[in-house]
């Protein structure tokens, strides 16, 4: 054996497609996908979001058809955002009985009862000032906003939502929502907490889609500083103690270290939110012919799962479901 090389031949396990699939460590499936939708009031309207080609705001009648298509692709859950006509200081549209998300939830559960409806629980789409809670002295009042969030969660559950996903980053939101849901008899409805949510420029296109840009200031007094890692652990820890059933990390792509940290430290399903700006960047490059969209998206989603995500909220969900079934 005198010519035995002194190195390891890693390429042996990459020699063919079959060999590579045999040793592949990470897989994406349609079970992992959560599809976000923007719901408009009125009827017969489908507006493409300019900064998000392929993403639409749709009215309830169009939603009826859309949910059947989503279901037929094998996607099992959706997260809903409302785009109401009327807004006010207190975000009333978020918690009224016939609010847009409440109505959309009823439509979906009637058309496709198996579809899991995740209600994003926040006020920013419904407040005239665009902030995620009630404003006092130019800042969002934490405790006053909590009561409205709890009310929103209960009205969403009453409408048939399967999972409540509070996203407004007020301290204590899991505690008050859990208590309110339990008191209203919804002890079996899980909370998917946006536990770790950074104040990110990657949300720009979403704010066009949901018409939720803050009218003054920014969200830095409640969303997290992108520079911080230990703070993410504190956020996730308190949400777990307060009773969160799922932990969301958002955005996903620039925060995969945080996804891994959360996965390693907490025993709960981890959800990566592949946010609007991450979508728009890929779309822009793809529309220019600069990248291979399918390969790139599948690589990104695989990376999120490799980092530890169990589930991924993504505007690419329908495309991915189609690609996976090819
Ligand atoms: C509501 C909310 C936002 C997103 C999800 N829920 C916007 C924000 O916090 O400004 C962003 C999602 C995306 O960018 O895709 N608070």
From TrEMBL:
Describe which pathway this protein belongs to, using the record's wording. Porphyrin-containing compound metabolism; protoporphyrin-IX biosynthesis; coproporphyrinogen-III from 5-aminolevulinate: step 1/4
Q: What is the lineage of its organism?
A: Bacteria, Bacillati, Bacillota, Bacilli, Bacillales
Q: What is its EC number?
A: 4.2.1.24
- CDD domains associated with the record: ALAD_PBGS
Identify the coding gene.
hemB
Q: Which parts of the sequence bind 5-aminolevulinate 2?
A: 276, 315
Q: Which residues bind Mg(2+)?
A: 235
UniProt keyword annotations, A-Z: Heme biosynthesis, Lyase, Magnesium, Metal-binding, Porphyrin biosynthesis, Zinc
Write down what this protein is called.
Delta-aminolevulinic acid dehydratase
Enumerate the Pfam families for this protein.
Answer: ALAD (PF00490)
An example GO BP is: heme biosynthetic process
Q: Where does Zn(2+) bind?
A: 122, 124, 132
Residues the record marks as active site: 197, 250
Query: What biological function has been recorded for the protein in this entry?
Result: Catalyzes an early step in the biosynthesis of tetrapyrroles. Binds two molecules of 5-aminolevulinate per subunit, each at a distinct site, and catalyzes their condensation to form porphobilinogen.
Catalysed conversion reaction: 2 5-aminolevulinate = porphobilinogen + 2 H2O + H(+)
* Record-linked PROSITE patterns: D_ALA_DEHYDRATASE
Quaternary state and interactors: Homooctamer.
Q: Which cofactor does it need?
A: Zn(2+)
Q: Spell out the SMART domains in the cross-references.
A: ALAD
Keyword Mitochondrion belongs to the record: no
Q: Which family does it belong to?
A: Belongs to the ALAD family.
């Amino acid at each position: 054996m005198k010519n035995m090389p002194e190195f390891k031949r890693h390429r042996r396990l990459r020699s063919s497609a079959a060999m590579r699939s045999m040793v592949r460590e990470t897989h994406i499936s349609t079970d992992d996908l959560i599809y976000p939708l923007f719901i408009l009031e009125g009827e017969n309207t489908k507006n493409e979001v300019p900064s998000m080609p392929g993403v639409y705001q749709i009215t309830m009648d169009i939603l009826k058809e859309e949910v059947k298509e989503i279901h037929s692709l094998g996607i099992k859950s959706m997260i809903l955002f409302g785009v109401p006509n009327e807004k006010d200081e207190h975000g009333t549209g978020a918690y009224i009985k016939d609010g847009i998300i409440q109505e959309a939830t009823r439509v979906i559960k009637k058309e496709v009862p198996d579809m899991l409806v995740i209600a994003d629980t926040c006020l920013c789409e419904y407040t005239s000032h665009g902030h995620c809670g009630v404003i006092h002295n130019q800042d969002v009042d934490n405790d006053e906003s909590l009561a409205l969030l709890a009310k929103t969660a209960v009205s969403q559950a009453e409408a048939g939502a399967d999972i409540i996903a509070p996203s407004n980053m007020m301290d204590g939101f899991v505690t008050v929502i859990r208590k309110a849901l339990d008191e209203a008899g919804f002890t079996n409805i899980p909370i998917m907490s946006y536990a770790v949510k950074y104040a990110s420029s990657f949300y720009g296109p979403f704010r066009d889609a949901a018409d939720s840009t803050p009218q003054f200031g920014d969200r830095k007094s409640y969303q997290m500083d992108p520079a911080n890692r230990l703070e993410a652990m504190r956020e996730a820890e308190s949400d777990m103690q307060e009773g969160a059933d799922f932990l969301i990390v958002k955005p996903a792509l620039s925060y995969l270290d945080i996804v891994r940290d959360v996965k390693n430290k907490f025993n709960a399903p981890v959800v990566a939110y592949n946010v609007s700006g991450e979508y728009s960047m890929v779309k822009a490059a793809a529309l220019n012919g600069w990248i291979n969209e399918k390969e790139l998206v599948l690589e990104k989603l695989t990376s999120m799962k490799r980092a530890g995500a169990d589930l991924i909220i993504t505007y690419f969900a329908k495309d991915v479901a189609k690609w996976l079934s090819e």
